[in-house]
Amino acid sequence: MITADYWPNSQPPSWASQATIYHLLASTSCIASYRHEDSYCFDLDESIDEETFKKKVLRYAAEQPIFYGEVGGTYSHSETNYFILGMIIEYVSKEKLSDFFRKNLFEPLGMQDTFLPSFGKYGQHPNTANKKGKSNCFLAFGDGGVIASVGDIHKWNLALHSMQVLQKESYDQITKLNWGIDTCCQFSEGTLDMLAQLGRKEPYNEWIDVYYGYGKGCFFQYT
């Protein structure tokens, strides 16, 4: 449970009563990310324990301004969203997140080579490995860190899209086009070849419609 001692001066920020689970899932909470970029990313102590780290993440997010001035104002990618969602799962299930994933997802689906490692350092984040002091170790929790084999990823995709993980109503929610993102996409040659084989128009270097669903995935619509 997120108690008062998680917040600076034991006072929750205004967004704590405004941001909903929907906002966290759809990345529209506009809460600052604790490891998204150098300007919004705190120094990370590799020897920190899990409980202290959770408090540090929430206190950091509480002290940063809300992007665009309001919760739900727009899409804003933030790992803090999924960190908080992990804490919610632990509170509701009364289990460690790694145990919850294993018992309720990986084992039932036969994903024997998939796990969320115990909290702590297990590898360097490729995007920040050479930036001293800034989130240079990847701590596994709700916002990332699951390790899986290619075979298990295939099992997961089959199970997810055949309603073995979620009911149809929930599946429709996670794949709903929640927010449009203006972007100019540049695709690799390999992706362009794949799109050509599928009979798709090449979207290279052009503005296309991109939408965000739940999770960390985008949906592209080609004209």
Q: From the alpha carbons, calculate the radius of gyration and give it in angstroms.
A: 19 Å
- Arrangement of strands in the largest sheet: 5-6-7
Helix/strand order: HEEHHHEEHHEHEE
Could you estimate the helical fraction of the residues in percent? Answer: 25-40%
Query: Mean of the pLDDT scores?
Result: 78
Q: How much beta, percentage-wise?
A: 5-15%
Poorly predicted sequence stretches spanning 5 or more consecutive residues: 123-137, 218-223
- Main sheet summary: 3 strands, antiparallel
The shape is globular
Task: Describe the protein's architecture and organization.
This protein is of the alpha+beta class. Helices cover 32% and strands 13% of the residues. The protein contains seven helices and seven strands, in the order H-E-E-H-H-H-E-E-H-H-E-H-E-E. The strands form three sheets. Strands 5-6-7 form a three-stranded antiparallel sheet, with no helix packed on it. It has a two-stranded antiparallel ribbon with strand order 1-2. A two-stranded antiparallel ribbon has the order 3-4. A hairpin with a 5-residue loop joins strand 6 and strand 7 (218-221). Helix 2 packs across helix 3. The longest helix is centred in the middle third of the chain and has 15 residues, at 79-93. The chain is globular. Mean pLDDT is 78; it is low at 123-137 and 218-223.
